[in-house]
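Q: What would this chain look like folded?
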Amino acid sequence: TPPVFYGTFSAAGGAEADLSATVDGIAGATLADTLWLAELSVNPELTPWWTFSAENVIAVELDLSLLDYTFASYHRTLSNVTIPLARAVTPYQGITISPSPAFVTPGGTLQLTAHVAGTADQGVTWSAPPGNGSITGSGLYTAPATPGTYQVTATQAAVGLDPGATGIASIQVGLQPPGPPTSPAAASTSFGAAVVTWTPPASTGGGPLTGYTITASPGPATATTAGTATSSAIRGLIPGGVYTFTVTASNSGGTSLPSAPTSPIVIDDAGGAWTTTPAPRPADANPGQTTLSAITCSAASCVAVGGYQNSALDEPAMLLSGSGSSWTSVAAPVPSNVNTDDYYSANLDAVACPSSSSCVAVGDYGYNLDEGSGLLVTGSGKSWTAIKAPLPANAGGSTPNLDAVACGAVGHCVAVGIYGATGSSGNYWAGLILTDSGGSWTAARAPLPANAVVTGGFEADIYSVTCPAPTSCVAVGSYYTGPGVTQGLLLTQSGTTWTAVEAPLPVGGSEGALRAVACPATSTCVAVGDYGGPNGTQPGLIETGYGKTWTPARTPMPTGVTAVDLAAVACASRSECLAGGSSGPQAGAVLVTGARASWTTVKAPAPAGAQSGVGAILSVACPSASMCVAAGTYANAAGQQIELLYGLGAVWSAAGAHLPPGAELWANGLSPIACTSPSTCTAVTTDTTSSGKNSYGALISGPG
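A: My prediction, written as structure tokens:
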């Protein structure tokens, strides 16, 4: 057997020229110029394994000595220049295994090939460590049944002057997550949206890509698209906001790491526009005296409620269905105890739709000039049924007020408000809860904390209700604990039982009230209002919790503001809620965003020409996790106006609503708002002529 031999080799040839001086027989400094005409270096373990170059070295040398004693020694290289002339372009000897990267299904087979560089002998020995599958002498690999990453080795033994070589390949068994997409870019040319493009990942993970996910920053907007795509639109972005985007790729083996972020872009806000549409009236309506008071929307359409005057001078309630600029209206039916040949009036103040074919509207009605009763209207489209609202056993003669309604599911709705009650202390207003169970309504006096009293003809009032699940609702309001002193009221339904809790107050608080509630999750709710703070302040009050456990938070107040009254709340997610209200003449309309104990208050922007310190946010909605809308009032030289806003966090855009043709001013700022999508929301209100003789319901749609 020939001996195994390999190692390194270096050879050079050239000439040297020395320039030196002698002073009084003593040698001085020497300048040496060494020119290596050719230098060949060989090392099989390096890449490149051989190099051929020319080198020039210039050095100075000084040795001062006398009688074998050296006084000075100085050696310094002044210049060392190497000029490569040629080099190896392949390894001396190495093994490359193909395919690379290598993928195979669990238990499947894959043919591998090996290329040995630097030799004509291409024979190799294949092997796989224990547990890594098996491989034949010809390179046919059989994978284990368990997905994972495994290794195989190809070797060629050292023989004679050939040093031998080894190649190792990693094989992915089963699909692996793909690599990240590359070259992401973004642009925004449409309102509240962006288009993101990318290049597919270099590695698909061994199988076809099943999809891409685009994520906006700041969040939480996302978009998904097919695995064959290289671009996608992402919507629900805040117009005027600054965003970056990342892209991930997915296959059945997992999801890639995110791509690099795109460059920041500003989201288009030029398309934002609100359009005012006069509310259509039923066929028997008089030209004037039409009002709208509430609206709710699903993904398909909306339902709005209000009232009108007919040709007989009766004042029936009215129901509208539609969206955008397309609406139809019908007169609301009245309960069977109403003789429509006599004068009667009705109005609907709130509406909820647990499905597209099932809605509940609440309000009141009266006839023959009597005190009147609560009104419950159920149905959809042009088909509605009305009944008289039941009342608790201690109800007196006053007309009940039903202020809000919510549904956890079809047949599971709750309406709240107040009713006239009688007791040992006389007549008074008490909290009212109406519960629907499969179409059967029952009435109950709202339970109250132990410190509740009747004073000045009042006991409690309930303003708002929401139902995150069937038979699980939360209602809020206020109740009296003494003459002129109220506390916030939190009512939670569990099955058929309601539990009452006094709203806790921040440190230094004395009294309070709650006016709105929203629940981003089944057991997480946010209620808002205001409370009496220290030193005569009246901050906004935010309660977070559920059932008997609630945590209060004080609304941060802008500089110079001493009072904030919150009237509406909605949540885009558990971590992002929006409340709206007013700070009075100090700052006007305000928006409060955040969650739990972290909240930020900003002065709501107003359209051009708005008077400073005048206005309020009266209704809010969050149609997506990345965008909310708000409706309220502001004032300019022409008087009170309707304001619409859209945004999230600290980024908001404002617009004023245009009056319908023939209208001269807005009669009220009650502007409930609801959305079918992030770009299609509708607020309802009422406009009138300057004389006040005629009023017209109006539907304001936008912003996209």
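DSSP finds no helices and 54 strands in the chain.
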